[in-house]
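Batch 3, record 17
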Amino acid sequence: MLETSSSKEDAKTSVRDDAERQPGRKSTHEDGDVAGLGKRRAVAFVAPALALVSVFLIFPAVWTLYLGLTNYGLTGSQALNPQFVGIDNYVSALTNPAFLNSLWLTVLFVFGSALIGQSFLGFLIAWMMMRVSRVVRGVVEFFVLLGWIIPSSVSTFLWFALLDGGSGTLNLLLHTPGTAWLLQFPMWSIIVFNTWVGTAFSMLLFSSALASVPPSQLESARSAGAGAWAQLRDVIFPHIRGHILTNTLLITLWTFNTFTPYLLTAGGPDGRSEILPVFIYKLALQNGMLGQGAAISLIMIVLNLMIALVYIRLLRTREQ
Amino acid sequence: MTSLKVEKTSSAAERESKNGLATPAVRKFLGRIGTTVFVALVLAFFAIPILWLVFAPFDAHPSMNVKLPEFTLKNFAVLFGDSSALSSLRNSVVLAAGTMVIVLIFGSIASYALSRVRIPGREFLLYSLLLLSSIITGTAAMVPIFLLMVRLNLIDSQLGVILVLSAGMLPTVIFILKDFMDSTPKSYEESARLYGAKPLRILWDVVIPIARPGLATISVWAVVQVWGNFLMPFILLTSPDKTPAAVIMYTFYTQGGQPNLALISAFSLVFSFPVILMYFFVSRRYGFRFHGGIKS
Amino acid sequence: MHRKHLVSVGSLLTASVVLAGCGGTQASVANPQLNANAKQVTLSLTANAISGGKNAQEADWVTKYVIPQFEAAQKKKGVDVKVTFDPNGVDDAPYKTKISLALNTGGGADVISIDGIWVGEFADAGYIKPLSTVVGKDVSPKWPGWSQIKPAVQQVMTYKNNLYGIPDGTDGRVIYFNKNLFKRAGLPTDWQPQSWSDIISAAQKLKSLPGVTPIQINAGSAMGEATTMQGVLPLLVGTGSPILKNGKWQGDSAGLRSTLDLYAKIYGSGKLGDPQLQQAANGRDQSFAAFAKNKLGMIIESDYLWRSVINPSNGTAPMATRDSAVGWAKIPAESAGTGVNGQNFVSMSGGSGEVLNPKTKYPQQAFELMTFMNSAAAVRARLGNTPQVTARDDVNSQVLASDPLLSYIAKDVLPITIYRPSLSDYTKVSTALQNATDSVVNGTSAGNAATTYEKALEGIVGAGNVFK
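Prediction for the assembled complex:
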């Protein structure tokens, strides 16, 4: 049975139905409540997570957003007497060339690492793994996953060794002695590094999605002579469209907010790899300017929201 | 729709084989080469950076570069002699396990409820939590979190760190698990219901087993996130005996402030080992899968 | 619909209520005589030092000397004291963040080790209070150690004419040079440059030596404060004014332009320095390694280079020939008499020290611990076998006699040195200076870099607080 994502369009009708339904009655299958949880129990199931999240996530997050309206700093007189400055932080951020530079670099970073890097490469690997032996698949998956599992503080050292300008491994392999990759190609370095770290998750998501495509349909396509590209376009994509979008959304958001490249280049040289999370880190940790840091965090959320809306839009159109 | 396109392609294939240019056999051979090249490139890309981790810990004088080691096990001897290094690994396990348990339990029941029952506003809730979680994991929320923990008397408490990290991860976990559960067929739950099973029973006996691969992957993800997390434990923990490995790693500097590569490389290997083990364990037992447990 | 909205509105309401109750730090100052006669006392002490890691010697000194000795001495007086040490082994910025957070919430250790330039911003934030407030007006001046600490060195822990703690060490900057390379280039081995042009001509002679970088003057933001302290400021104060004069900060002045011009001369077409080194994340370490390997002719650095880096016995980049091959000289002003106060030679110094937590439960005892840590015997014990410039003259004359560079610093450099302003804004101004050198090394003209710097400066301190 082909399983589409639960139809969100039915929300309106079901609310009316639910209102009429009484708890305890066997539900019809319109709203998916096949185990008969009922509204009350469902809320009880969500409650623990919601409670934890309210205290330790929503509350500090809202507080942080409030800080964005002040000139709060970790040291100095702004710590003792923070002043309400309204939208000053936002205005100064949006007119700050360093911020705009950081914003642009983040867009490049997300495009290069999340979309082309992790999503595309992850999909490619997942797809290729469908046609190799189990042994090869196991070995490849292991090495891809290593990059993701190894803690980022360790991966940093691994990539320092790889990209070192003196006798780094890459220079030895490509016979390009003296190329200081981190200094001459900082954005490329962090894009490739982040791809190395993150592709595993994308590969897992896609290989699961690919595994959920009914093999019978693939078989009939193949026996009818459809080439790889045709199989992809006509059998596989229709099944996993929803998954592609949710996976890519998550990976995009993660990449947008990842701070790990700081460990590799510290945003340098001269700010040439200073993506937004690094920009905020420097503002908050090195300069203690938390009000501004908070304001920029909100700007980032708005951008994330815009990205999410694009994906949701695409998701909705898929289903129609 | 599918059949129409397939017919077109098959006639194209017939046409090509008539031409004798790219026969299916040739295409298959080229495909094999392409696949092999691709696999080789992927393996190279992902494996080469690991070399440093393989060589440097066993090198008497490790440097920033990958080189054949002057073999020694002394680095590990020094590491194991440092009691704070070993206890930090224990602390990392405590933090990771605690967070994993909370995230799994709270996350799975919440995502199940959100997936099956049409609670009004669930989409809005999920997406806004997902967005807000990015503030918490950033550095701007440092002070509010710290002040909150002071008020709750959870400073220098591993429980405090676990709660903060879990809260930061739950939105993503629920998002992923809900997506997973959405594509899990409901037929088993329906039949169990018809046999009169109560909802909690159904959850435990029917849903969890089907969802196990997804839950296993989430567990690994949660552990990996906590294992490498520096900022929260650094800010919230003060006692040296509670410091996790991720924080201790940054203290392996020499007296003067230069990184002590011998200790760092050895510690990196030991530090990475448990999570790699966990990966093997989970992938052996459950396999990493997310969507749709049963195919039809 | 209703339930979810209620939850969100509810949490927002709670947020605002709690927010209303949490503004700034609590105002009350503890009584200096609080628990002064207690017989059971607990004290805690924190520093950016950790056994087996950063500043391990200091960490070991605390756990093996200070704590046992202090507890024993107090026991003799009939007071049962328990002292704990909270170690840290991270970079300065995370350490500063951690103690700021703690002090912000009224927590933190009783005695805290800090860098001298944090005093101003911590004081402005209310995190620390003058010693006279914390322990009482008459208590601190009675400590005999003050007579051994030069007034200039006391500036390290002073802000707006109030002492906030006790300085425990200081340093000085000189220009080191490699005598062997100088000999090969035809330069004198007892070199003492009298002006910047002397330095440039020496560098140009060194350029003829293959595989040798003539000079290293820190630049760029990768090296952080090391750029400002070993690069910009020693040059800037050689042009006439310190960075802060009469409450105003130096902007796009003639002196700043000369300084940036010198950077352009060195890292630009002259190729007297290595521009790539200034941008690498570990550039400073690389410059040390180069100097130790006789590949770098001159470098402006503090005594840290001599005693901890190229130290043949336990340095991080040991130089076996250090004592015979390395020479040093005072940093000249731009030309004779153009330095601050009309000096011919200049230097910059930093320092660190301990402060008291104003919320400590045992102010008198904490002060006793602090003075004990800075007593002559304790300071000598801290140094062990590695001589270092301390804040105390008596210890310096004893311990430094065997080390020519360190006694040179204590005798010849400290009298001419300048300390950084410990105003809150200093760190931001320092970053702006680092960025200016970053641009110059990357090819921007000195004039453009100076203009950009002044704009940044005005954003930090306000246009009215800038002087040219």
